[in-house]
Amino acid sequence: MAFPVPSHLPRKRDNDVSTKLLSKMSETDLKSLSYEVASTWVIELDDAIRETKRRIHDRIQTDLPAFESQLSSAKSVQERLLQLGSNVDQLHHSIADSESGMIPQLIKSLTQHATLVQEALDTNTKHSALVHLSKCKKQVNELVTLTRQGKLPEAISAGDVMDHLLSACPPPLDTAEIMHDLKRNARAAKDRATDQLNEAYSRCIVVSAEHIIVRTSVPVRQSDTVLPLSAVVSSLPSSFLSSHMNTLRRDLTTHYIDHILKQPVSVSLDSHEGAATPSEFKLTTFPDPPMVPSTLSRIENLAQVLQFLRDHLLPFLPQSSTFALSLCKPITTGILNYLLIPSLPSSIEALPGFLQLVEKAVNFERDYVGGLLGDDSPDKEVKIWADAVGAHYERKRRMELLECARTIITREENDGGAFRVEVVVIEDIPQEHLGNAKNGVVSPLEPIPAVEEDAWGLEEDPPASAVEDLIPEENGWDFDDEVEPGVEPEPEVAAGPSSVEESTTPTEDPADAWGWNDDPTLPPEDDETTDSSVWDDPWADEPAEPKPQPVVKPKAATRLEKLSNKGRASASATSSTVTSPVPTSVPPPTPAMPILARQATTTHNPPPSASRPTEKEWYVVSGRVKEIILLVEDVLNEATQLSKSRILSPSHHTPIGNILGQTSSFVLELYRALYPVTFANSLSASPKRAFCFYNDCLWLSDEVKRVRGSPNTLSSSKDKLAEGQDRLRAVADSWYEDSIDNQCLKVNETLDGTDGFRYTSDQDRYDECEAAINQVLQDIRRFAREVKPVVTKTKYFMALGSIVDAALSRILRDVLALFDIPEVESHRLSELCRILNALESLFVEDPNHPSFVVAYVPSWLKFSYLSELLEASIADISYLFEEKALVDFEIEELVKLVKALFADTPLRANAINKLMQGHHMS
């Protein structure tokens, strides 16, 4: 909306003449501007002026009385304004005139008054300053005089008065030069008096490493005044007195409390009083021979020192009770830290003499710390410590025993102390899985196939960087070393009351427990990994050399391969009509593995048996754990002896012997915690070392069980030992499983180089896969060589079976995951799978008996069929499926394998339909 024009403003139509004229002038350009135009504008302006005057005159005339009234009022106002201005001028002259004005006169009077006030103030200030200066001068002269005369206490008092005067100095005087001189003189005099007092104190009280000298009076240097010790001490300024008291307490603590309690010294007192010399009291110390037993005399010497201080020093000290109380803490702390705690014995025989010392220390604390020095606190540190002396003794012994255990645990491995432990094993696994009552092996349906290991380079020696064996090959665990003359060998520790015993009889041959000596004419095996000598008794006499017999090499199962080739030929010859040949007999489920064993492993139903056969196995234990269990037994015996000795009185919380008895479990905890950390690198690098640690924990757990059942073991220690036994067993089991898992992980990492066995038709890829599988074979056999000599046969086969099963399962998973397997790749994959058939020889004890690989490698049957299925025809696969020979395979796995091996034909479709019907178990 438009801006409204106010009503008092002229509208556009009522514009005045000047506006119109100006508008015309602004609208006229230079070309139109002329004299005539300008004359016209002047004429119009004159006419407008005359018109305006006329209108004004007419307006006045219309209201003339009002105009005249307003005119007269204006004239009257003008006259009054002129009169008011004249009055103001007169008033200003009377006030501000420089000669007679009121303001200049007032300022002049005030200035004169201020001058008089300042003069009076200056006079009073000068008078006060002179009076105060006179007092200060007098006091300084008195201070200097007293200092020169040697009246040091009075001089110190005069100095305090002088300090008060100087602090109360009037403000104008404190900045004067004379006051600076007075302060300087007063400070010098007071400092001189203080120095003389400090020097007098240093001559009155002398504390050094050799003696304490206390003089009751001392002359002041350069004067005839003699000051008593009490006056010297009381006159010292508080800051200097506090410093002297701290120094005195420190020197007494260092030279006459700690020093006397640390080492043997003798104390002598000497005092003399002359006519012209001040009284002097002296206490002297000098060292005693170190061989002199002075434990009790140290407390007596300290008592003499405190008696000397009470008689000759404390009475002269201000606030002597406070200073005496400040000595209580260093004395009690010194008795504990320098006398009682270091004197704690390490044997029960030394306890009676030590308890006498403790009783004397308690009496000393009561009589001297509490009575002489005035410590009335109810909590006496020495008394509290003495009440728990039994616990302190046991804790010290615990630290010593744990340090001994730590030395044993962290010591470098020494194979010379290792020994063998025999254990009676009940044949559970062979009974359940294989059904043979003698050695866990069933009769074979066909012989074991011979494996040419030299073709894979498996007979090569391990590299030089392999971890060194715990048992040297020359003589087992060095038990064949001759005993030094005059040294009787220590008997071996029994492993358990009924389940574990060490092989200490030289005539016993552990090979009998394995059934190796059933036939003395067995030929020796060539495979180093199946060498039974690692489980032979090193003390047994060498058996008679067996007669050489020809080694029977079992034939490999080739019927399935021939049938497979025949089936492939027939399948390739007929494309429209497909017929499956009917074989005359069912092929074996796997080379050297009976169907009975396979069924036993798949159904998991063990056949009933009237009796369970037992046999003896052995494992190797390091000498370190024997030392540990001996240390545990020593600890328990010492705890029992301490508990029965009645030398120590039981404390309020813990009976005597409990702390020491529980140290046995601490030794076991220290072994569990420290050994795996200290030897972490060697344990991770060597399977043998890891399984030896498993053996050590296992044997130590059995030994702890035996020790726990001993009648000499305190009942309070049995629960801790039971807990330690369970934890050792848990550590052994977990370490056994972890060691196997580490080897399985290593196998999987090696098989990662196969890249899932893809594109094996390429020679380079095939070489990479072959190298990876050969490496797995070498690693497993190296693991077998390292672990077999140290663990029991059962644990050895279980660990080996788990690792072999991990390798086979990985290969099965990768091969069955292939989407397409051409004919060339199928042959090559079959060749790669057959490489690991050499692992079966690791599960053979006797070449005349079949292997028991299936009992420990669940995927062995499945893997054995895989290498055959890769080269079998559709007819062969269908036949094996109908004969229930492929029950280890899932239906989906068989279908996927058939699709990967064969092209999409009616024959494959029929086979897949047959497979999809599933296994029909009769």
Describe, in plain words, how this protein is organized in 3D.
This is ZW10 C-terminal helical domain-containing protein. Residues 476-587 are annotated as: Disordered. It comes from Cerrena zonata. Residues 569-583 have a biased composition (Low complexity). With 922 residues, this protein is mainly alpha-helical. Among the domains are: 14-62; 237-387, no CATH class; 559-605 and 743-916, Tetracycline Repressor, domain 2. Helices cover 58% and strands 5% of the residues. The protein has 32 helices and nine strands. The strands form three sheets. The chain has a four-stranded antiparallel β-sheet with strand order 1-2-6-5. A three-stranded antiparallel β-sheet has the order 8-7-9. A hairpin with a 3-residue loop joins strand 1 (205-207) and strand 2 (211-215). Helix 9 runs antiparallel to helix 10, helix 23 packs antiparallel against helix 24 and helix 24 runs parallel beside helix 26. The longest helix is centred in the N-terminal third of the chain and has 48 residues, at 102-149. It is flat. 31% of the residues are buried. The model is unreliable at 429-611 (pLDDT under 50).
